[in-house]
Specification:
The complex is a heterodimer of chains A (385) and B (386).
Chain A: H1 6-22, H2 25-32, H3 41-49, H4 68-79, H5 87-100, H6 103-115, E1 120-123, E2 139-142, E3 146-157, E4 164-170, E5 181-187, E6 193-199, E7 205-217, E8 221-222, H7 229-264, E9 266-267, E10 270-271, H8 276-303, H9 309-338, H10 348-361, H11 366-378
Parallel strand pairs in A: 1-4
Antiparallel strand pairs in A: 2-3, 3-7, 4-5, 5-8, 6-7, 9-10
Helix pairs in contact in A: 1-4, 4-7, 5-6, 5-7, 7-8, 7-9, 7-10, 8-9, 9-10, 9-11
Chain B: H1 7-23, H2 26-33, H3 40-53, H4 71-84, H5 92-104, H6 107-118, E1 124-127, E2 143-147, E3 150-157, E4 168-174, E5 185-191, E6 197-203, E7 209-222, E8 226-227, H7 233-241, H8 251-265, H9 279-307, H10 316-340, H11 352-361, H12 372-382
Parallel strand pairs in B: 1-4
Antiparallel strand pairs in B: 2-3, 3-7, 4-5, 5-8, 6-7
Helix pairs in contact in B: 1-4, 4-8, 5-6, 5-7, 8-9, 8-10, 9-10, 10-11, 10-12
The chains are: A alpha+beta (385), B alpha+beta (386).
C-alpha cells in the first residue's frame, strides 16, 4: 500500500504555510459579510502561478503532470485553512475537458485553466437527485445548429464566478440510464441561462443554473453524444476523494482546537482535559480522525488503481460513509466540549464545524452510502466476499 | 479484501492458502468454524503443524526460528489463518513471553525456554491480574521474598487464562515492598507443579472454564528464574505490551465472523425469507463492513508507516479499541441472525447456543489486555498530551 510520499507531504506543508498567510479567519469573515460574495481572482491567479490549478494536467498545456494524490494533498491542506474557493470542482472540470474535449476545446481552455485566467466548473447535480450520478433530467434536444438545453442544475459552488460550466444533459434514455448523458461547455453569456444565487451550509456562495431553451452549437458538445457517463464517474470519484481529503484537513484542525481549548479552559479548579469524561471524548474524536484519514487515503489510492469499476465505486461509498461519521461526530463533540463559546459565530471553530457538515452532506451522506452498500449485501455481495 | 496486496504479500498469501488447504485438519477446521470449545490437544496439534512448517512464531528473528517476514506479511499470514478456520495460536508463549526473554532474558533462559515454546513442550500462562489489581496492575500485592538463592512467593493471581492447561507461568511479583508501586516488581518464571501452588477454576458467564484463581503459599523459586534484574519487572511487562501491536485489531477473526454472519443471515426463516433480505439487517451488516474496512486500512497505514521507518506511538491502541468493539458487534449480529433461522442446525454453521456463548464470552475482549478505558487513558496521555 502506498502512503503519502515525502514529496506530497512537502507539497501539503508548503501549501499549509502559504494558505495560513493568505486565507486566515479574518479574511474569511470579511468575505462572508460581502453580498454578493466576490471571487478572489488574485488568490486564484496565485494558485495558478504555484501550479496548483494544473497539478494533474499535462505539461504541454501548462500543467504539472502530477498524480491525483498530489492534488489531494493540496485539498487536505485547504481543509485545515479557510479556503472556500472551488478548487476540487475546478480540477474535476479540467479533468473532464482533458478526457472528453476535442483538440480545439482543449487548446481554448486548458492553458487558461492552468494559469487561473479562466474558471470552468462542472454543473451536474440536479434537485432531488439524491447523490445518484445517473439522475439527469436536463434534456438536450438536437436542433439544426446543435442542441437545445432545458433543465436545472443545482448548487454549483462559486458558480457565478465561472466563465463556463460543464453542463450534463440527457440526449437519450430515461432518467437513471447511464447511457445517453452528454456534456456541454456552456459559456456564462449563453442566452436563456439564468443563475439563482444562494448560500451553502458553510456560507459558501452557490449558484443554481436554470437552463431555459439554451441553444448550444455542435462544438459545445464534449466527446461523443450520450457517452459522458464514464468520464463523469471518474470526476465524481475524484470529488469524493477530495471531500474525504478536505474533511481530514478540517477534522485535524477541529480536533487540535478542541484539544487546546480543553487544556486551557478551567472549570471546577482544573482544565477540562483533567476530567476523564472529556479526555475520553477527545480520544474518541482522535480515533474518528484516524479512521477518516485511513479512508481518505484509500479513496486516493482507488483513483489510480486499475480494477473493476463496481468494486471501486463500492469502496468509495465506504470511504464517504466512514468520513461522514467523523464529520458528524467530531463536529458535534467539538461544539459540546467548547460549550457556549463553541456556538458562536465569532469563533473560527464554528465555521469549521459548518464546513464539516457541508462535507458530510455533499456527494451522499452516510445514510445514502450505507444504502448503496446494503443493496449489495442483500444481493449476497458487499465490501467483503 | 486484499486489493492492496503488494507483490510480496500476494505470493505469500497464495503460499499460506495452499498450506492451509492441506495442513489444517478438516475436523479441527470444522470445530473452529462451528465455535465449539477446543481442547488443549487441538491447540497443541495445530501449533505442532505450524512449527513443522516454521510458521509458529513468524515475528521471531530468523536465528531463533522466525520467518523474517515484514509486519505486513505477518498480517497477511494471520488473516489467512483466521479465515481458513485455524485455531488461534496461544499467545502466552510465542507472542508474549518470547519477546520479553529475547530482550531481557539471559542466554541460558533464552536457549532453554525459546525452543520449548516452539516445540509446545511448555504451555505458558500469564500471572498478572490480582483481585485488587486489574487495570491498575501496578497495585499488585503478591510478594516475593529473597531467601538465599531462592524467591519465596506468597499471594494470589486471578483471571489466569488456561492456568489449568499450563505447566509454566510468567508472573509479576512485588519483591521490594518499600519501593514506589511500579519499581519494586520482578518478572518471574515458575513451574506450575512447584509445591504451594493451587489452581482453582472460575466459571464465566458463558459457562466455560477458561480462567482460574492461582494461589501461592510459600512457593520456592530459584532466583535464576527472574527475568531481567530483580525489581525491574515493570520494564519487562511494558516491553511485552509493545509487541504484536499491529495485530491488536484481530481483523482476520472479524472477517471470518462476518463471512459466517452473511451465510447465516442468508438462511431461510419459517416463511422462507431471510435476515439478509431485510433492509434493516442488511444495513447493519453493511455498517459492520465499513467499520472493518476502516480498521483494516488504519492497520495497513500504521504498518506502512512503521515499515517506512516512522516511529509509531500509541496509535495501535485504537486498533485494540475498534477491533474489540467491532468483534463484539458482530457477535451480537450473529446471535440475531441465528435466532431467525428456521432449521435448528445447518451443516457447517454454529448452533444458536454456540453463538450466544460466543457473545457472552466476547464481553471479555474489551476488558482484557488493558481495558478499552485504559487504552483511552493511554491515548489521552501520549497522543493528545492531556
Amino acid at each position: 500500500m502506498q502512503h503519502a510520499t515525502a514529496e506530497q507531504q512537502a507539497l501539503r506543508d508548503s501549501a499549509s504555510r502559504f494558505l495560513a498567510q493568505q486565507c486566515d479567519f479574518a479574511r474569511h469573515r470579511r468575505r462572508q459579510q460581502q453580498h454578493p460574495a466576490e471571487f478572489d481572482r488574485a488568490l486564484w491567479t496565485r494558485m495558478g502561478e504555484l501550479g496548483w490549478l494544473g497539478v494533474m494536467l499535462a505539461e504541454e498545456v501548462g500543467g504539472l503532470g502530477q498524480t491525483p494524490q498530489a492534488a489531494l494533498a493540496l485539498v487536505e491542506a485547504m481543509g485545515g485553512q479557510f479556503v472556500s474557493e472551488p478548487y476540487a470542482p475546478a480540477l474535476a472540470a479540467a479533468q473532464l475537458l482533458q478526457t472528453l474535449g476535442k483538440p480545439g476545446q482543449q487548446a481554448r481552455w486548458l492553458p487558461a485553466l492552468c494559469t487561473g485566467a479562466a474558471l470552468v466548473l462542472p454543473a451536474h447535480a440536479e434537485p432531488g437527485a439524491r447523490a445518484r450520478l445517473t439522475c439527469v433530467q436536463t434534456r438536450a434536444v438536437r436542433d439544426r445548429e446543435g442542441h437545445r438545453l432545458d433543465g436545472r442544475k443545482n448548487a454549483v459552488p462559486w458558480g457565478q464566478a465561472a466563465d463556463a460550466w460543464l453542463v450534463s444533459a440527457r440526449t437519450a434514455g430515461p432518467v437513471d440510464d447511464p447511457a445517453g448523458i452528454s456534456l456541454f461547455i456552456v459559456p456564462r453569456d449563453a442566452a436563456g441561462l439564468r443563475l439563482e444565487l444562494r448560500e451553502g451550509i458553510a456560507g459558501e456562495p452557490l449558484a443554481d443554473l436554470v437552463l431555459d431553451g439554451v441553444r448550444m452549437p455542435q462544438d459545445a458538445l464534449l466527446g461523443s453524444p450520450g457517452q459522458a457517463h464514464a468520464a463523469l464517474e471518474a470526476a465524481h470519484a475524484f470529488l469524493l476523494a477530495a471531500a474525504c481529503a478536505e474533511a481530514v484537513g478540517t477534522l485535524q484542525a477541529v480536533l487540535q482546537a478542541t484539544r487546546d481549548y480543553a487544556c486551557t479552559r478551567q472549570q471546577f479548579g482544573a482544565p477540562l482535559a483533567r476530567f476523564q469524561v472529556i479526555a475520553h471524548r477527545l480520544v474518541d474524536m482522535f480515533t474518528q480522525v484516524q479512521l477518516a484519514r485511513s479512508m481518505a487515503q484509500l479513496a486516493a489510492q482507488l483513483l489510480d488503481t486499475p480494477g473493476d469499476a463496481a468494486t471501486q465505486s463500492l469502496r468509495l461509498s465506504a470511504c464517504k460513509a466512514q468520513v461522514s461519521v467523523a464529520c458528524h461526530f467530531v463536529g458535534e463533540q467539538a461544539v459540546q466540549i467548547h460549550g457556549g463559546i463553541g456556538m458562536t459565530d465569532e469563533l473560527a471553530l464554528s465555521h469549521q464545524v459548518r464546513r464539516l457538515l457541508a462535507i458530510e452532506r455533499c456527494l451522499g451522506d452516510r445514510f445514502h452510502h450505507l444504502g448503496v452498500l446494503s443493496e449489495r449485501v442483500m444481493q449476497g455481495e458487499g465490501l467483503y466476499a | 479484501m486484499h486489493a492492496h496486496d503488494l507483490e510480496a504479500e500476494h505470493a505469500l498469501r497464495a503460499e499460506v492458502r495452499a498450506f492451509l488447504r492441506t495442513a489444517l485438519p478438516p475436523a479441527l477446521r470444522a470445530k473452529v468454524l462451528a465455535h465449539e470449545p477446543l481442547a488443549k490437544a487441538d491447540y497443541v496439534a495445530w501449533q505442532t503443524i505450524l512449527n513443522a512448517r516454521g510458521w509458529l512464531a513468524p515475528s521471531w528473528p530468523v536465528a531463533r526460528g522466525g520467518t523474517g517476514w515484514t509486519p505486513r506479511q505477518v498480517y497477511v499470514f494471520e488473516e489467512e489463518c483466521w479465515l481458513a478456520g485455524a485455531p488461534e495460536v496461544f499467545a502466552f508463549g510465542p507472542k508474549m513471553l518470547a519477546p520479553v526473554l529475547m530482550q531481557h532474558g539471559t542466554p541460558a533462559q533464552q536457549d532453554f525456554y525459546l525452543p520449548r515454546i516452539l516445540a509446545s513442550a511448555d504451555w505458558w500462562c500469564q500471572g498478572y491480574s490480582e483481585p485488587g489489581a486489574g487495570s491498575d496492575l501496578a497495585s499488585l500485592r503478591t510478594r516475593g521474598r529473597v531467601e538465599g538463592d531462592s524467591l519465596i512467593i506468597d499471594g494470589q493471581k486471578t483471571w489466569t487464562t488456561f492456568a489449568h492447561w499450563a505447566n509454566r507461568m510468567f508472573c509479576l511479583v512485588r519483591t521490594d515492598p518499600q519501593a514506589k508501586p511500579q519499581e519494586g516488581i520482578s518478572f518471574v518464571l515458575l513451574d506450575m507443579d512447584t509445591p504451594g501452588i493451587t489452581v482453582r477454576p472460575l466459571i464465566l458467564l458463558d459457562g466455560a472454564h477458561e480462567v482460574n484463581e492461582v494461589f501461592f503459599d510459600q512457593v520456592r523459586v530459584p532466583l535464576t528464574n527472574v527475568v531481567g534484574p530483580l525489581n525491574h519487572g515493570w520494564t519487562c511487562a511494558k516491553a511485552l505490551l509493545g509487541h504484536e501491536r499491529f495485530n491488536a485489531g484481530k481483523i482476520g477473526r472479524s472477517l471470518r465472523e462476518l463471512r459466517l454472519l452473511k451465510r447465516l443471515a442468508a438462511q431461510p426463516d419459517a416463511r422462507g425469507r431471510s435476515m439478509l433480505h431485510d433492509a434493516r439487517f442488511a444495513e447493519r451488516i453493511a455498517s459492520a463492513e465499513v467499520d472493518l474496512l476502516a480498521l483494516e486500512q488504519t492497520t495497513l497505514r500504521l504498518i506502512a508507516a512503521a515499515q517506512a521507518g516512522a516511529s509509531i506511538g500509541v496509535e495501535p491502541s485504537i486498533l485494540k479499541i475498534r477491533g474489540t468493539e467491532i468483534a463484539q458487534q458482530l457477535s451480537l449480529l450473529l446471535v440475531q441472525a441465528s435466532d431467525a433461522v428456521a432449521s435448528t442446525h445447518v451443516e457447517g454453521l454454529p448452533t444458536p447456543m454456540a453463538l450466544v456463548r460466543q457473545y457472552l464470552n466476547w464481553r471479555k475482549l474489551s476488558i482484557y489486555g488493558g481495558s478499552n478505558e485504559v487504552q483511552r487513558n493511554i491515548i489521552a496521555k501520549f497522543a493528545l498530551g492531556l
